[in-house]
Write a structure and sequence with these properties.
Radius of gyration: 13 Å
Distance between the termini: 31 Å
Order of helices and strands: EEEEEEEEEEE
Helix content: under 10%
Number of helices: 0
Largest sheet: 7 strands, mixed
Shape: globular
Length: about 110
């Protein structure tokens, strides 16, 4: 399946943790650089974290030190461990990948803090 599939959202109290997972099968015409974005009501979608095929990671300043992205090359998943969650982390979280020059988005998973 080309489209990434997110899982693991839910509701958690401030200070709590959630782990999101993005399942993305490998395809010749798709990059395995996976990025997580989020969109809160009334706001634009924003970058949260990314990992490339070499395992190099990047984070938005707002989540550095609290979120950790990792990849499982056996399961073909990219996980986002979110700790010390804050109310401002409430958003729908999307996983994305690029295939043939286009962004392919998952359906998203809701996180409420």
């Amino acid at each position: 399946q080309v489209q990434p599939v997110e899982a693991g959202g839910g509701s958690v109290q401030a200070g709590g943790s959630l782990r999101l997972s993005c399942a993305a099968s490998r395809y010749t015409y798709c990059s395995y650089d996976i990025k997580w974005y989020r969109q809160a009501p009334g706001k634009e979608r924003e970058f949260v974290s990314g990992i490339d095929s070499d395992g190099r990671t990047s984070y938005a300043d707002s989540v550095k030190g609290r979120f950790t992205i990792s990849q499982d090359n056996v399961k073909n998943t990219v996980d986002l461990q979110m700790n010390s969650l804050k109310p401002e982390d409430t958003a729908k979280y999307y996983c994305s990948r690029r295939c043939l020059g286009s962004n392919i988005w998952g359906q998203g998973t809701q996180v409420r803090t």
